[in-house]
Amino acid sequence: MKPTTPMSRPSVLLVEDTLSLQMVYRSILATAGHRVVVAGTAADGLEQFRTHRPLVVLLDLILPDRDGLEVMRDIQALQPETRVIAITANGSVNRAVEAMRAGAHDFLVKPFDEGRFLSAVQNALAEAAPREPAKPDPVTRSRDPGEVSDGSGFIGSSEKMRRSSETMRRIHSTISSVARSMATVFITGESGTGKELCALAVHANSNRAAGPFIALNCGAIPQDLLESEVFGHMKGSFTGAISDKQGAATAADGGTLFLDEICEMAPALQTKLLRFLQTSTVQPVGATRPRKVNVRIVCATNRDPMDAVRRGHFREDLYYRLYVVPIHMPPLRDRGQDVIEIAEAALARFAQEEGREFHGLDPAVRNLMLSLPWPGNVRQLLNVMRNVVVLNPGGWVTSDMLPPGLADEGRVSEPDPGPARLPDVLSPDSLLGLTLAEAERRLIEATLAQYAGSIPKTARVLDVSPSTLYRKIEAWNAKAS
User: Fold this and answer.
1) Contact 13, 49 (CB under 8 A)
2) What pLDDT is stored for residue 448 in this prediction?
3) How far apart are CA 57 and CA 239, in angstroms?
4) Taking a C-beta distance cutoff of 8 angstroms, is the pair 421, 443 a contact?
5) Cα separation of 409 and 379, whole Å?
6) 111 preceded by a cis bond (ω within 30 of 0)
7) Going by C-beta distance under 8 Å and a sequence separation of 6 or more, which residues neighbour residue 321?
8) Quick one: which of 117, 128, 145, 331 has the fewest CB in 10 Å?
């Protein structure tokens, strides 16, 4: 086999035995501009690795011919600087923890969204590859007041801004004003409203645009690994720490650290984050001396942060330290004509990627889109437009091209689970003698039973995020196995 030349060298090796997932992941990576080589078995994966020597390996931990952790150790032995991202199923988070302790750079738990997937790959590539000299910052050019760079994909030109809703114009103005300062930005809004894109816009319009943008989802990482993910660890600091690991705070030095789902952070780590904000120093797990870093913090949550403070889930002093410049991302249903602007921009972009020609949205589709509640917000709208482009040859987008059932969302909504109340099977007497953890588990399980196992409904009733419930259930299952 001919050796790979530097110009054709793939940056990512994907080892995944499920063909349908292999095709989806490869398509997402290729669309994002990554050179990818794929393998369906451990043997083929190691052969491809020896041939191409990629910088990043996406590795399913459950392969038909060999254990994924063994494959990871072989890869690390062949090329220690390669960054491995472990992929595992929803019920096997403990395997991901094992992989992280064995030296994996990051992990993904199926099912994961496209943004989290690409962010993990981009962060791994940024750490594995030598950084190129910074190019002139395109956002330092002269701008009209209130104009925001669209390099992040958040929003476009000033002409489009004039057509956007008044709320969005205020958001543009806030971003333009705060971007070049060091003030912490706190973004709130429902899931799918574009909080990470807002954070990217703040970064892209700042003096740090040439530096790294590191995103960390505080709700997607097991609590026992979160400190290591944020601050890093030293070799030998705990069992399985076979090498030094750079944390997100250090990786973001000279740039921006985006902490998503900040209200899901464990109380012990909130204390350390507060110290980090006060001193601008990072002390990895196992290190004896702190290191000074220059990082701008942007954080986000889909919850009410003040309510989390009142409930004792979030430190009040940390809240006031972070809540300097608030930006609330409105749900798509409240943004009027922005729905059409976003849909048409997405249609043009996806059509170009797929090599197809679409003229736009016909009037019936426009009216339908303006009437829909869009519970998934911008993320749902983008998925709809991607579906239209992939499954149709082109022309005007008509109602029959839309995903089945989309039109029904405007007429039929999911029944509200109603106000929170104690499930009938529980009584104060039945909780006496239990530990707080046991009482919590009994309440969660009883509420799940009351709503037929629906985690989203249970989360709404108990006023927690679904990711919190998933983590607790996974922890219970891991203890039982």
Assistant:
1) yes
2) 81
3) 23
4) no
5) 16
6) yes
7) 184, 274, 277, 278
8) 145
For 143-188, strand residue ranges (E) read 185-188
Residue-range domains of the chain with CATH: 12-127 (3.40.50.2300), 147-330 (3.40.50.300), 333-410 (1.10.8.60), 428-480 (1.10.10)
Position 257 scores a pLDDT of 93
Model pLDDT for residues 402-417, shown as the tens digit of each residue: 988 786 665 444 445 4
Cα Rg of the chain, angstroms: 23
CB 347 within 8 A of CB 389: yes
Residue 203: burial class (beta carbons within 10 Å; 0-12, 13-18, 19+): buried
Residues 9/52, Cβ–Cβ less than 8 Å: yes
Report the distance separating Cα 87 and Cα 13, nearest Å: 13
E strand map for 281-338? 281-282, 291-292, 296-301, 325-328
Please tell me what DSSP assigns to residue 17. S
Tens-place pLDDT, residues 118-147: 878 887 787 666 544 333 333 323 333 334
Q: Edge-to-edge strands of the sheet including 296-301?
A: 213-217, 256-260, 296-301, 185-188, 325-328
Greatest CA separation for the chain:
73
For residue 248, give every residue at least 6 positions away whose Cβ sits within 8 Å of its Cβ, in sequence order, or none.
Answer: 214, 216, 229, 230, 257
- Token pair listed for 338: 């922005």
Half-sphere exposure in the Cβ direction for 378 (13 Å, CA):
26
Q: What are phi and psi of 297, to 5 degrees?
A: -100, 130
C-alpha to C-alpha distance for 13 and 16, rounded to whole angstroms: 10
Q: pTM for the whole thing?
A: 0.56
**Cα(222)–Cα(409) distance, rounded to whole angstroms?**
35
What mean pLDDT is reported for the chain? 79
Angstrom distance (rounded) from CA 186 to CA 195? 10
Q: Please state, in angstroms and rounded to a whole number, the distance separating the CA atoms of residues 49 and 55.
A: 10
pLDDT of 97 reads 66
The residue behind tokens 């309510």 is: 307
Per-residue pLDDT of 57-109, as tens digits, reads: 999 988 888 888 889 989 988 888 888 888 887 556 667 667 776 777 777 77
- pLDDT single digits (tens) 311-331: 888 999 999 889 888 999 988
- Return the bridge partners of 246, or none: 232
Q: CA angle 339-345-349, nearest 5°?
A: 140
Q: Please tell me which residue, 281 or 115, carries the higher pLDDT value.
A: 281
Phi, psi of 395, rounded to the nearest 5 degrees: 90, -160
67: DSSP letter: B
